[in-house]
Amino acid sequence: MRNETMPLLEVENLKMSFTSGKRGKKVTVNAIDDNSFKIYEGETFGLVGESGCGKTTTGRTIIRLYNPTEGVMRFQGKEISGPMTKELRHFLTDNIAMIFQDPIDSLNPRMTVEEIIGEGLKYRGMKNPEERREIVYDMLNKVGLTHEHASRYPHEFSGGQRQRIGIARALVVKPKLIIADEPVSALDVSVQAQVINLLNDLKEELGLTIMFVAHDLSVVKYFSTRVAVMYYGKIVEMAPSEELYRHPLHPYTRALLSAVPQPNPLLEKTRQRITYDKVRDHIEMDEPRMMREILPEHFVYCNSKEFERYQSML
Amino acid sequence: MNKDTILSVQNLTISFRTINGMVRAVRNISFDLKRGETVAIVGESGSGKSVSIKAIMGILAGNAVVDDGQILYEGKDLLKFSEKEYHKIRGSKIGLIFQDPLSALNPIMKIGKQITETLKLSHPNMTKKEARDRAIELMESVGIPDAENRFEQYPFQFSGGMRQRIVIAIALARDPEVLICDEPTTALDVTVQAKILDLINEIKRERNLSVIFITHDMGVVANIADRINVMYAGKIIEKGTSEEIFYEPAHPYTQALLAAMPDLETEETLVSIPGVPPNMIYPPKGDAFAARNKYALKIDFEQEPPFFKLSDTHYAATWTLHPNAPDIEMPEVLKNRINRMKEGRA
Ligand SMILES: Nc1ncnc2c1ncn2[C@@H]1O[C@H](COP(=O)(O)OP(=O)(O)O)[C@@H](O)[C@H]1O
Ligand SMILES: Nc1ncnc2c1ncn2[C@@H]1O[C@H](COP(=O)(O)OP(=O)(O)O)[C@@H](O)[C@H]1O
Ligand SMILES: [Mg+2]
Ligand SMILES: [Mg+2]
Questions:
Q1: Does the beta-carbon distance from A190 to B256 stay under 8 Å?
Q2: Tell me, which fold does domain A9-247 have in CATH?
Q3: Among A24, A210, B75, B181, which has the minimal tally of Cβ within 10 Å of its Cβ?
Q4: What is the spatial distance between Cα B28 and Cα B21, in angstroms, rounded to a whole number?
Q5: Last residue of some domain: B225, B245, B280?
C-alpha cells in the first residue's frame, strides 16, 4: 500500500505568513495556513486554487525561498525546514527544481541557452565544458529543441520554446521532484498541449515526481494523479483526481468545479452554478475543523457535523 | 443587409506599418451581428481579434492601414465616419469592455462619479440627484452589493471582478445597442468569470443587446455564444452556430484547438499542435494553418481555400472539404468528447 512506502516529500502543519505595513498598522497574511500533505515518488500532485490562495508560496516555501513560519517539511525523510545551511541548500537544489509560469522572467537575457541549461551542472562542479555541452545537447533533444538552439538567447524564442528551455534547465541536474508553477498558464492554447504532453513524456521517461500548481482545474485534473484544492491558504479537500471530480464534497470545491468552463455549449447553457458562501455553507460548532478521511485517500477539511453531512452526500 | 442585422463587417482587411514591414493583421474577414444575439470571435493571441473590434470602434492605432472592407452599422459604413460622427455612436450606440478593468477606470475618481459623468454624456439634462439614483440602480443591476456605500469608493477598493462589474455598469449607462467585450474575463478567476459571464448573458437578455464577444477560451465561448467565428492568422477560417462548431468542427485548426485542451473528463492524449502561428509580415500562401497540420495537402500550401458550405449557417475554409480531398480522421480525444456530449444530450 502507498501508506507504507516513504513519501518523497512530507509537509506537516506548514504555515507561512507575511507581515507588511508600518508600525502599529501591521497586516499579516497567512499565505499558507496550516497545511499537511505528502507527495509520493512517481506521482503528480496537483495543487489548484484561485489567485492569491497560496499556491506559489507553497512551492517557494518547499524550496526554501522563504523560511516557514511553522511546520515541518521532510524530503526522503530528511528534514528540510530547519535552519538554512550550505549543506541543506545543496541538498535542496540537487533534489528539487522549479518550472515557472513565464520563463522569460527567470531566464537571464544575457546568457545563451547553453549557458542557461548548463549553469546547474557548473554549480555542481562539472568543470569540463565539453562534458557539459554533451548533456545540454541531450537535454535540448529531450525537450524537443535542437543543438542549433544552444547558442541563441532567450528573447529569440516563442513562449512555448522558452518553457521548453525552462524545463530543460530544471531537469538537467536530475532532480527527484519538479515543482511546476503554472507552467502552461501563459501559453496559447495550441502550445499548452505541447508542453503538457512533453511533461507527461518526460515524467514517464525519467521517472519524475511532479507537484503541478495551476488555477485551471481541467488541466490540473488531466495532468495529476492526486489533487489538493486550496482556498485562502488552506487545503480544503484532497483526493485522487478522478475521485475529486466524481465526489466533490467541500462547498468550495463544488463551486470551483461548477465554474470551470467546458467546451460543451448545451451543457454550458443550462449549467447550474454553485456559489460558495463561507457562512451559509458551513455548520459552526466548538470543535475545530481538520482534514478527515471520508473515503480512502479522500480528505475534506471539516468538523464532525460537516463530516456527517458530507457522508450523506456520497 | 438583412433587417435583423445590426452590424455587418465585410471583407475587412487591415495592416500595420512597422519598421520590419507591413503586418497583415486582419485579412479579409466578414461577419454579421444580428439583433439580440451574441457572436463570438475566438482565436489565439495575435490572430487579429482585437484589431478587428478596434476597427469597429474607430480606435485603430496610428500606423494602421485599412486596406479594404466595410463596417456597416444601420446601413452606414463606419470606416467612412469622421471622428465627429464616431463621437455620436462610440459608447452611446456601441459600448466596449476590455480585459483589464483597471485601465478603463480613473484611479483617482470615485466610482459613483465615473458612472454619473458617463450618464451625463447621454443625458445632459439629468439632475445630480437623478444621475446618482440612476448610477446606484445601475450598480445594483450589475450585482454590486451595498451600492450606496460603494458609490463613494475608489477603484482600488474593489476586487477585480467588482471592477469589471463597474466597467459593465459604465458601458450600460449610455444604453448602447451593441456591446463589444474583448476578453472581459481573461484576467479573472474562474468563479468570478462564471459570475461575469452570467451577468453578461442576463443583461443581454434584459436589454435585448447585441454582443460581440472576443476570447481565446473555447470553454467560455461555449457558454456565451450563439454563433462563433474562429480566427487564425488574421482570417476567419470557420463560422457556425455554437453547436456546429463544438459538435461538428470541420477546419483542422478548429479541431486541433478543441483537441489541444482537456475538459474535466479527458483521459486521452491531447493533440499537440506543432510549431507556432505564422509571422504576419509574411503570411503564408494557401491555408495559413497548413504548416502545422499533419494532414495538409499540396494545395494547402499553394492556394487559399474558399469557404465550403456545410449548412446554411456553417462554413469552413479548408481544402479538406473539397469533394476530391481524402477523408481525414478527427483526433481521438475530440471524437470521444463529441460522443460523450451527444450522449449527455440524448
Ligand atoms: N513576498 C510576499 N510578501 C507579502 N505577501 C505575499 C508575498 N508573496 C505572496 N504574498 C501573499 O500571499 C498570498 C498568496 O500568494 P501566492 O502564493 O502568490 O498565491 P497564488 O500563487 O495562489 O496566486 C497572497 O495574499 C499574496 O498577496
Ligand atoms: N499598432 C500595431 N502595430 C503593429 N502591429 C500590430 C499593432 N496592433 C496589432 N498588431 C499586430 O496585429 C496582429 C493582431 O493583433 P490583435 O488583434 O491584437 O491580436 P488578438 O487576436 O490577440 O487580439 C498581431 O500580430 C499584432 O502584433
Ligand atoms: Mg501563483
Ligand atoms: Mg486581443
A1: yes
A2: Rossmann fold (3.40.50)
A3: A24
A4: 19
A5: B225
